[in-house]
From TrEMBL:
Span of domain Prepilin type IV endopeptidase peptidase: 8-94
Cellular component per GO, a single term: membrane
Molecular-function GO terms, alphabetical: aspartic-type endopeptidase activity
Gene3D superfamilies recorded: 1.20.120.1220
Protein's UniProt name: Prepilin type IV endopeptidase peptidase domain-containing protein
The keyword Cell division appears for this protein: no
Swiss-Prot/TrEMBL keywords: Membrane, Transmembrane, Transmembrane helix
Source organism superkingdom: Bacteria
Ranges that cross the membrane: 100-119
Length: 147
């Protein structure tokens, strides 16, 4: 239960910061990445965490480089942290990459749907990323869930 409280506090701080200021600071993203990697290493799941981090952050980095100003470095670092978090609990590096790709796609859909719902073309991407990761983590925690 304490893990979920920590997750919720971290996710809320990131989402509020991104919605208010349009940026995700290193002071919030990098500790999450470090803790996800350290936790995975402690459980013998570092390869999955690294695969998940690369699978989510890689496409974000490519998008940030291709269209400067649309996605920032904070989104890329958050993608790495969330991918590591999801990947660390996956059964293999391939499962980790797949989980991160699916959550990344879901985050894009959530952000687009929120934009349509409120009539805005542009929204911070962080809250959608956090919502998608939260959904994936909760689904994995269900009894009988794989991973």
């Amino acid at each position: 239960m304490a893990w979920w409280a920590c997750w919720a506090a971290w996710a809320a701080a990131l989402a509020i910061r991104d919605l208010r200021r349009g940026r995700l600071d290193d002071a919030l993203t990098l500790p999450g990445l470090g803790l996800a990697l350290a936790g995975a290493a402690g459980c013998g799941a570092l390869p999955g965490a690294l695969a998940g981090a690369a699978a989510w952050a890689g496409p974000l980095l490519a998008a940030a480089l291709a269209a400067p100003g649309r996605l920032g470095g904070g989104d890329v670092k958050l993608g790495a942290a969330l991918g590591a978090l999801l990947g660390g609990g996956a059964g293999s590096a391939v499962d980790a990459a797949a989980a991160a790709w699916l959550a990344g796609a879901l985050s894009g859909l959530l952000t687009a749907a929120a934009g349509l719902a409120i009539g805005r073309r542009s929204l911070p991407h962080g809250p959608g990323m956090l919502a998608a990761a939260g959904i994936a983590l909760a689904a994995r925690a269900l009894p009988g869930a794989a991973g």
